[in-house]
Amino acid sequence: MRLDSSIILVGGTKDHVHLLGRQARTITLAYWVKELKRASSLWAKSQELGAFQWQAGYGGFSVSQSQSAEVERYLARQPGHHRKFDFQQEFRKLLKLHGLEWDERYVWD
Q: Which structural domain, as residue segments, surrounds residue 80?
């Protein structure tokens, strides 16, 4: 199946990835993430990058097209940003910002 989804920008640090993309309306977020993880895992193994492995979970947040440029700037600042906040602090902040509740027992693997 073709995903018909475009990747705009990828950024992150050694322990997580941020991806800005346009998801096709014909696939679910879960399927899109599954295919992104599958394809990137195959690529990482072909590059002999060692013991590469995705965590089980993921977070997906909608962004309006009018906010795309701001998200791109945010992704570009990740290395400096993570000198102040670790991945878990950042994820909790995003969950709060979007008004989402979570249970710590199920968020981290």
A: 6-102
Q: How confident is the model over 68-84, as pLDDT tens digits?
A: 999 899 888 877 777 78
SS (H, E, C) 11-78: EEECCEEEEEEECCCCCCHHHHHHHHHHHHHHHHHHCCCCCCCCCCCCCCCCCCHHHHHHHHHHHHCH
pTM value is: 0.74
The per-residue pLDDT for 1 is 54
Asked if residue 78 is part of any domain, the answer here is: yes
> Considering the domain boundaries, does residue 80 fall inside one?
yes
Q: Tell me the two tokens of residue 84.
A: 């102040």
CA–CA gap between residue 63 and residue 79 (Å, rounded): 21
